[in-house]
Amino acid sequence: MSDPLAIGTASVSAVRAETARLREFFAQQRPAIGRELGPVTLEPEAPERVRVFWETFGWTDDLEKHAALSHPDMASGRAKVQELLAEMREDEVELQGELPQRYRLVNVDRDGIGFAVTNEDGDPTDPPVVAVISDTGAVVQEHSSYLNYCANQVVFASFAGWPTLSVTLSSYELLAAAEAPWPLLSPATRRLTPDVWLFPRSGLVVAPGRQCGVAFTRLEALTRWLMELPEGLGVSVPWLPGKTLGVDSLAEVEPLLDPGARSFLGPQSDERLVVGTIEGRPVMARQHGERCQVSTALRHSAWLAARLAKKPEPAAAPPTPATATHTPRPLIRDEELVALDDLLAELCP
Amino acid sequence: MEPDAPAAMRRLWSVLGDSHATAKYRPVRREESRETFARVFADWFAEPISRNVWSVDDSPEAYFTALPARYRLAFRSSNPGDEIEFMDETEDVDDPPVLVMRKAEPPIIAEARSYVEWLVWRLLSEVSWSRYTKYYKQHSGIQGERILPSLYPQLERLGDGVYWMRIYDYLRTDAIPVDQSMLFYRTLEDYFRWLLTLSGEHLPVAQAPKRAMKFVVSSPGAWDVTRGVPDGFRRFRLVDGSGTLNNYNWRAVGRIGDVYLWLDTWGGDELTVYVDPRRQAEAREILRAHNLRIERVERPPAGYGEYGW
Questions:
Q1: Residue A348 is nearest to which of B12, B150, B308, comparing CB atoms?
Q2: Would you tell me how many other CB atoms lie within 10 Å of the CB of residue A231?
Q3: Domain check: are B26 and B80 in the same one?
């Protein structure tokens, strides 16, 4: 496996190739944004790998909203930073440290907590990231790699349309050995199966671990992957994915499971996760203290309620058209149509 | 439009001109609507959550089974995004309902019983987005003139170039519109001029314009409206949405020369002066003449004058 953050020493061609694959993946997952990615030209003195990353990935302002990244152009970012610093001065907050001489804006926190810039003093190949806290003026080291930060944000945004789950494992060795699609740019990301991925939940994650989430296309894919995990591995989830039902205990569910179901202990002695199928349909169940729930895919929820002899919940609403009662309206007078047209003309001369 | 398009829709659009004001809402033919839906569904299909909740497994075409037999996109958009508004024209009615299909949340839900009312609200909201304010008409006792009683009875003309309207019967339960009624005006000066005609009893329901050129001044001196009334102004306190008089927010509206101004303060040392962006040069001169120092300028958003001033 590559060193978690080897991007600064990797060849430029390797960075370009990974970035091209990242762009392709992002555009597949978020086609409406991917179509808008346009060319970027950074200043000639930008770190070469930074320039290659953005010139290969491209830019659209949608990335500000969806990936919480700022335009990589140094000049526009510096102008924005000057505005933010002026706002801090208006609020009588002074910077508690020096900003780098050479920097580019990384992102601006939407809630006004602060902003982050690169530190490009000393010509780093992959600059570190420095954060400024708006309320205190503190200047703190945020992350060691700008490119890892950007790539992680893009990976995170790629999975916005996937169901995701927090999964805590007792060991991440197995996951670390899985395919790493972008080992230089986002070494925390793993393709566990074509339909199950481990992804960094923030820009700061450098390796598979608890700061990662699991994204999956369908519940069946997730349960199949969980059922194939090695014996002895501890698995914990804070909630169940899919449609959940309350049950008294796991004993209500386990006798119904098809052969091959798995049971995982969590870090706490009163936590247990059961994963399997009933009549071939995916089921997960979780006991935590006295609380016990079972879940399946939305489309199977009515079936599961019946199978568990639970009071049937309202069936998952079929995607049928809504009906809005048509109310006959008074006959529209011609002169009012003209009056509306006149009003629009009055407002928009 | 097709010959069998709903009659009220055809009548309305045969009168409305093809202008910048109406461009976004010009009717889309059914065939073109289907092409747009196909593009949107292809995007939605890329996202597993959307595929799962709509039970679309193999092809984006399967989303179409959720749509009524005859439908029409409610307005033009190159990227409708996470939800699409459309008319259900399956029933042979003059004025079809407006429905909404959401990317990750079935089923399709109803938004409005009447396309005509939906359209009037949308058109007037769109063109007056920079020229409106909240206005608690229920507390004002002011009754305007209904100028479109058969077309949009919730619209009233309050004065020259000043209008109020309430939203149509909004059927969605998954979202609450930010603005359910609005007072809008031809120009900011029309609004201020109208306010100066109101009685002292009616004036307090007036709200500051949502968008304007704003100058924040410190040490307002003779313009400190918490203490008195500058020459040429009428002073009042805010009445909020519950009809309660606010003890902290003081306002004044008035005219100096031919420039109308709105003054607003929550006490302290700051006063915000609202003015029509076209009159900002004169307003700066007035502030200078009154020894008022501008601490901060809040400019109207880009595109303020897109539809008119």
A1: B308
A2: 6
A3: yes
Which of residues B114, B139, B155 is at a domain's end?
B114
Is A180:A190 a contact under the CB 8 Å cutoff?
yes
Number of structural domains (chain B) is 3
Res B147 pLDDT > 50: yes
Identify the domain containing residue B158 by its residue range.
120-185
- B269: amino acid identity, one letter: D
The pair of structure tokens assigned to B159 is 């004065």
Element at A151 (helix H, strand E): helix A146-158
B1 in a structural domain = no
The reply to whether B214 and B283 lie within a common domain is: yes
Q: Does A123 touch chain B (CB under 8 A)?
A: no
| A31 close contact with B: CB closer than 8 A | yes
User: Which tokens in the block code for residue A144?
Assistant: 């060691």
ipTM here = 0.93
Query: How far is Cα A118 from Cα A105, in angstroms, rounded to an integer?
Result: 7
From the list B106, B113, B150, which residue is nearest A319 (CB)?
Answer: B106
Question: Which H or E run includes B280?
Answer: helix B280-289
> What is the pTM assigned to this prediction?
0.85
Testing the interface with B: which of A295, A340, A342 to mutate, by most B Cβ within 10 A?
A340
- CB A32, CB B43: distance < 8 Å: yes
Q: Which residue has the tokens 């060691």?
A: A144
In contact, A326 and B97? CB cutoff 8 Å: yes
Residues B43 and B87 in one domain: yes
Domain boundary among B62, B91, B114: B114
Is B307 within the bounds of a domain?
Answer: no
Q: Which residues of B touch A321 (CB under 8 A)?
A: 66-68, 88, 99, 107-108
Long-range contacts of B245-251 (CB under 8 A, 24+ apart): B245/B204, B250/B225, B250/B226, B251/B206, B251/B208, B251/B225
Q: What is the pLDDT of residues A330-344, one digit of tens each?
A: 789 999 999 999 999
As given in the structure block, the two tokens for residue A56 are: 């290969």
pLDDT value of residue A318: 47
* Co-location of B248 and B290 in the same domain: yes
Instruction: Give yes or no for a contact between B271 and B263, defined as CB atoms under 8 angstroms apart.
Output: yes
Does B303 reside within a domain? no
Measured at the CA of A92, the angle between CA A86 and CA A95, to 5 degrees, comes to 70
Quick check: B195 and B174 in contact, CB under 8 A? no
Q: What is the pLDDT of residues B84-124, one digit of tens each?
A: 999 999 998 899 999 999 999 999 999 999 999 999 999 99
Which A residues in the span 221-280 are in contact with B, Cβ-Cβ below 8 Å? none
What is the helix (H) or strand (E) element at residue B216, kind and residue range? Answer: strand B213-218
Task: Please give, rounded to a whole number of angstroms, the shortest distance from the CA of A295 to a CA of chain B.
Answer: 15
Same domain, B110 and B124: no
Contact A317 B106 (CB under 8 A): yes
> Residues 136-195, chain A: which have Cβ within 8 Å of B?
160-163
Task: Establish if B306 belongs to a structural domain.
Answer: no
* Residues of chain A with C-beta less than 8 angstroms from the C-beta of B51: 217
Q: Give the tokens for residue B281.
A: 């040069």
Regarding whether B110 and B12 lie in a shared domain, the answer is: yes
Gap from A127 CA to chain B (nearest CA, Å): 33
Chain B residues with CB under 8 Å of A28 CB are: 46
- The Cα-based distances of A168 to A106, A153, A159, A212 in angstroms read 30, 21, 19, 9
